[in-house]
Design brief:
Blueprint (H helix, E strand, L loop, with lengths): L1 H21 L26 H4 L6 E4 L7 E4 L15 E14 L5 E6 L5 E18 L5 E11 L5 E8 L3 E8 L4 E3 L11 E10 L6 E19 L1
Antiparallel strand pairs: 1-2, 3-11, 4-10, 5-8, 5-9, 5-11, 6-7, 6-9, 6-10
């Protein structure tokens, strides 16, 4: 019996020794630590341009608030003494005269230059006039139709002028361009970008071909908007 108890005690002690040999227990327990970066606001302020730019003689800030402020940079190297209206009006006139149009045939494409040699890409007319005069030396009444494909009214309709001229007579009309829009045509030849393009056709009741002569003049043009070379 004693011999059996010794074997049990020896087995227990051996087990204890094996368990303690597999673990390395720390002498002192240390809790985990870490660092965190925190961004703490010191101030919150909105700066305007006039607070950032030092006072200078060539920089002027106009306006009461940030939203309506205008920053003007002036230079003493260039001076211009001119009214702004000089840049948006054409004071001269431009004409084409005695242009022959054959009735009852294909339409004729004509070009009438802008006054002062201006090249206009797009514009809105504040005012302006086209004077049209037709001389009919034939014995038939002639109906003349002229379309300005680059000129459109507020509804988007092209400028279209119709004029009926009695036999052996002349007739003249003036068309007001005010509030019409202009845009140079994409297919307009480069050498005519300084001109209105117009398409003219004429007809008679008899169907007999006749020859009429057309005069066109543009004058007193002023723009509320314009893009191009003036």
């Amino acid at each position: 019996m004693k011999h059996r108890l010794l074997k049990i005690l020896f087995s227990f002690l051996l087990t204890i020794l094996l368990i303690t040999g597999c673990y390395d227990l720390p002498d002192r327990i240390v809790f985990p630590q870490w660092d965190t970066d925190l961004n703490l606001p010191i101030a919150n302020r909105r700066f305007t341009i006039d607070e950032l730019i030092k006072e200078q003689g060539h920089i002027v800030i106009e306006g009461q608030t940030v939203e309506d402020s205008i920053y003007v940079l002036e230079s003493d190297l260039f001076n211009l003494n001119s009214d702004i209206a000089d840049f948006i009006q054409l004071n001269g006139t431009s004409s084409v005269t005695d242009v022959p149009v054959l009735t009852d045939s294909q339409q004729v494409t004509l070009y009438i230059p802008f006054p002062d040699g201006a090249e206009i890409d797009s514009a809105v007319f504040l005012q302006g006039f086209i004077d049209l005069s037709v001389d009919n030396p034939s014995g038939d009444e002639v109906s003349l139709n002229i379309v300005f494909p680059g000129v459109k009214d507020a509804s988007g309709s092209q400028l279209f002028i119709t004029l009926n001229v009695q036999p052996f007579s002349s007739k003249a009309v003036t068309y007001d361009l005010s509030n019409n829009n202009y845009h140079v045509l994409d297919n307009q030849p480069p050498e005519y970008r300084n001109s209105f393009q117009l398409n003219a056709s004429a007809s008679t009741l008899s169907g007999v071909q006749q020859l009429i002569y057309v005069d066109l003049t543009t004058r007193d043009i002023m723009f509320s908007y314009v893009s191009g070379l003036l």
